[in-house]
Amino acid sequence: KQWYQRRVRGGTGSGLGTRTLSIIAENFPDVFRFVIPVYPSADDDVITSPYNTTLAMNKISEHGNCVMPIENQSLSAICAKLVTAKVDTIKHTVTESKEKAFNRMNSFVAKVILDVTASARFDGSMNVDINEICMNLVPFP
User: What is the DSSP letter of 108?
Assistant: First the structure.
């Protein structure tokens, strides 16, 4: 089983990440590739983000068996709401550094990956194949 997460914003992440994914697909064609890209937000400061994201998405759809994208702005909003909920509970004000915010977002994405793939990783009555996880991500009427 194979899981693969990366950011497609630009710089090294999109180019090296898509090349790594294509090498995995070429050398290990029978390995299932569950790709979780983190897409940039609309107010991104990197000018080439839309271009890099478009190019990376082409390779992701070509080499990945299942793609579960996460949008960066939504991820930031969810993490901010979680911090606000904790602050309201303990009645304190929190000023969070940028490093802590990134750590919180990375931790949240890791928990999403663990939760989505838990039934494929552990034995039990709810144990399903990774293909069934991807099928359950698609809504049926």
Answer: H
**Around Cβ 94, how many Cβ atoms within 10 Å?**
10
Q: 26, 62, 96, 132: which is the annotated catalytic residue? A: 132
pLDDT digits (tens, 9 = 90+) for 33-71: 888 888 887 777 777 777 888 888 888 889 888 888 888
Q: Is 99 a catalytic residue?
A: no
In 3D, which of 69, 71, 96 has the Cα closest to residue 82? 96
Mark residue 21 as left, alpha or beta (left: phi above 0; alpha: psi -120 to 50; beta: remaining): alpha
| Beta carbons of 104 and 4 less than 8 angstroms apart | no
The string of DSSP letters for 65-102 reads: SEE--EEHHHHHHHHHHHHHHHHHHHT------HHHHH
pTM over 0.90: no
DSSP bridge partners of 37: 6
